[in-house]
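Sat 14:20. Reprocessing the chain from the morning session after the first attempt stalled halfway. Input below, unchanged.
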Amino acid sequence: MNTIVFAGGCFWGIEAYFNLLDGVTFTKVGYANGNVVSPTYEQVCTSTTGHYEAVYVEYDDMIIGLDKLLEAYWEIVEPTVKDRQGPDIGSQYGTGIFYTNEDDKKIIEDSRNREQEKYDSPIVTVIEPLKNFFNAEEYHQKYLDKNPNGYCHIPLNKYKD
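Finished this time. Tokens:
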């Protein structure tokens, strides 16, 4: 399996969204690329830990490639907005793509460059290697499965079968 980590606002909706895509085999929510070891949700919400709310995605590239995952990602984020997605405000809600394979960097940058053509303002989505990822608390995992009417800032019905 291949892996990639996406940040794009509240991780509940991002996780639910990627779980709808054929070829995504596993997801978990957590905190990526910050400067505190094993942060709590409450710490991350202070916008002082440097972490992004993020979703770790494992996928089968025989079913879905990184290009398709990136296309799906760009459909649900506002990549020119810093430290905010929808009503979620704070540095933990910034957009980011964190790769675990150095070969993916060019694919991601090329995808971002194609996406940039759609905007007058520069894309501010961070693209960097995954430095760390700490699992979020259990109640955050598959949150929208556990709470079907829970908060979600993205249109999940776009990919429902």
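DSSP finds five helices and eight strands in the chain.
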